[in-house]
Flavin oxidoreductase
Amino acid sequence: MKKHFSFEAIMNMEKQERVHFINSLGGFKSVSLLGTVNKQGQTNLGIFSSIFHIGANPSLIALIFRPSPPERDTLRNILETGYYTINHINENIYQQAHQTSARYDSDISEFDITGLQPEFKNNFKAPFVAESNIQFGVEFKERIDISINNTIMVIGEIKEVYVPENCLGEDGFINLEKANTITCSGLDSYHKTVQLDRLSYAKPDKELTSIA
Amino acid sequence: MKKHFSFEAIMNMEKQERVHFINSLGGFKSVSLLGTVNKQGQTNLGIFSSIFHIGANPSLIALIFRPSPPERDTLRNILETGYYTINHINENIYQQAHQTSARYDSDISEFDITGLQPEFKNNFKAPFVAESNIQFGVEFKERIDISINNTIMVIGEIKEVYVPENCLGEDGFINLEKANTITCSGLDSYHKTVQLDRLSYAKPDKELTSIA
């Protein structure tokens, strides 16, 4: 049996209940650690579930910043330095990743707090997370202010990518499951995945086939 | 062993390879069916993996439209009528859902093609997918043109929600896994999930606990 929630019922929810509810409705989300430095070289690490693909040509990735303090160090560092890393979260590090959402002072690095290792390589200006299996470096391109709810979209271009060799498909597909990348739902629920199938490119009047 | 891809290596990929590769990097994504009608009442159904949460107060959801033909019916209908439904995909309907990505003519309804049932209820102006366990109705609020890659972001407000009663948590959390909602990666890979844990709200100097 489905329960129906009218607009009024949603608006009458207690604030934190609505946050859980609406966050869940969006479905499963990517969840990654975003690594930055400030102008003085102080590292910062934050967990984000608002990262999404917007196009492959050019290779762009976007994320949403909410108007809340813990995300502000990351945003400030991106705007100051122009660079950041995105690091997939796996089953071994999701608790440490979750802990980065606590409101630490700006002079504290979440790398130190969690014990996750900053990894600087190939002269990229932001730290990767050594324990992450899929890592990529991004250059800031554009900020779009979303006035309807005071959030900020940041768009960046993917400049460097590190992927385990055994997770790379011939057609460019990356087997995230094999890389132990996890997904999240709502504010705080973490999930591993079990592949059902990969399906062929859909065309009218053509049967789908498995390409897994 | 990780393989390193420089910016040049990424740009030198064959176009379709880069599409798979960059799409995969974004991590696991929500995947849903978007139901609309045009001014004449002709139904349309399309699969989207670019839907994301942007805020709970007001209750907003966004999605990205790429500049490709199959998505155009959905976008036109949203702008014409102002309403659409978002319907979570489960293990029983993901092949039918995938088939909606084929380029059918505008006068063909993907409901008819796939056999998925349109469900009109509570006077909402767009059709839900009867086979979907989590459904919600959305009102168009704002269009933002993203000039950097010629995509369009559409923001809507959540007006009605239908969720199985046994998937509702006391704190507002919706158990997507119990509702059989699935996730996707890349362009064509579908996955069910296995919950690792729900973690308590993170605070400095406080141990995380399981709230699953």
